[in-house]
């Protein structure tokens, strides 16, 4: 028992010692405290005490006890208490059958609860469908049924409210890829409802770039020994690898590019000069090489003996 609930119980005991009896509001507060603490057994006990004291509790108090049972998925207790409400002359409301739907754990149970709602003359509001979507979204095996019901609401009505949208989005977040979750979040915003800020921010974020996985043929094995790696460069071209790195291709250069960067060769294999200036330089170097080393000295004369 929580501290607040214990303090409330002590206050009720003080009322009784003073000769005062708790009224319906007092029992209603105690029952709500028990429901908040998840103590559905205590909530049912307090309800029985109030009824034994001759108090006629409003339907809201019954709904609080039903909600406590639904949180624990106690379907039998929910159905039994709804039967007691009929005996006590308390008319059920939409919230009553919300608890009946929320207590279910299977698709068949949801269908029976919705049928009981119709039999009681309670309209299937968006809140009732939100509970049904929440139940169907708990299990991945019921995801198709959950989406089928949601699309039926969109097509035939009543239009899904905030709780209905969030039931489907949370179910998709648990069982479906992120892309589907983001699509639902954006669709919810287009429907005029405001998704949670974090979900909306994530849905607006562009997908991260994933580099492609290299294929096996893009990772060639190593070549052989070093002597096999030497490839002669052809005259007038260069070697370039292909995409698969397994073959080599000769890339021909344009003739004007070859004429600009490569010197033509004569028949003897010598490179010919490319322009007149280079020809003059070559002629000058040839004439210089033809002159003797001692050009400025006179030739020696032979003297005759007398």
TrEMBL record:
Residues 241-250, 263-281 have a biased composition (Basic and acidic residues). The keyword Aminoacyl-tRNA synthetase does not apply. Gene3D superfamilies: Tetratricopeptide repeat domain. Keywords: Repeat. NCBIfam families: PPR. Coiled coil: none annotated. Residues 190-306 are annotated as: Disordered. It comes from the Eukaryota. It holds the Pfam family PPR_3. PROSITE patterns: PPR. InterPro entries: PPR_rpt, TPR-like_helical_dom_sf. PPR repeats lie at residues 23-57, 58-92. This is Pentatricopeptide repeat-containing protein. The keyword Repeat applies. It comes from Tribonema minus.
């Amino acid at each position: 028992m929580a501290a607040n609930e214990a303090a409330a119980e002590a206050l009720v005991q003080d009322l009784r010692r003073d000769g005062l009896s708790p009224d319906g509001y007092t029992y209603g507060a105690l029952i709500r405290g028990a429901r908040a603490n998840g103590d559905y057994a205590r909530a049912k006990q307090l309800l029985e005490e109030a009824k034994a004291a001759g108090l006629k509790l409003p339907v809201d108090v019954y709904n609080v006890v039903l909600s406590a049972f639904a949180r624990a998925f106690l379907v039998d207790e929910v159905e039994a208490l709804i039967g007691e409400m009929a005996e006590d002359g308390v008319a059920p409301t939409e919230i009553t059958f919300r608890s009946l739907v929320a207590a279910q754990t299977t698709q068949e149970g949801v269908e029976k609860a919705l049928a009981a709602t119709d039999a009681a003359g309670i309209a299937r509001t968006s809140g009732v469908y939100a509970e049904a979507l929440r139940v169907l979204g708990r299990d991945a095996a019921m995801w198709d049924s959950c989406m089928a019901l949601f699309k039926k609401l969109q097509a035939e009505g009543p239009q899904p409210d905030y709780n209905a949208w969030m039931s489907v989005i949370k179910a998709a977040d648990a069982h479906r890829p992120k892309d589907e979750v983001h699509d639902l979040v954006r669709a919810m915003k287009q429907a005029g409802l405001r998704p949670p800020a974090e979900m909306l921010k994530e849905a607006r974020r562009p997908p991260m770039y994933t580099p492609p996985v290299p294929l096996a043929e893009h990772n060639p094995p190593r070549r052989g020994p070093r002597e096999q790696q030497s490839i002669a460069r052809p005259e007038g071209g260069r070697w370039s690898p292909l995409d698969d790195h397994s073959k080599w291709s000769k890339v021909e250069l344009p003739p004007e590019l070859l004429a600009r960067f490569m010197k033509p060769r004569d028949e003897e294999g010598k490179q010919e000069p490319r322009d007149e200036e280079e020809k003059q330089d070559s002629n000058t170097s040839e004439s210089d090489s033809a002159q003797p080393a001692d050009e400025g000295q006179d030739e020696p004369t032979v003297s005759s003996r007398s």
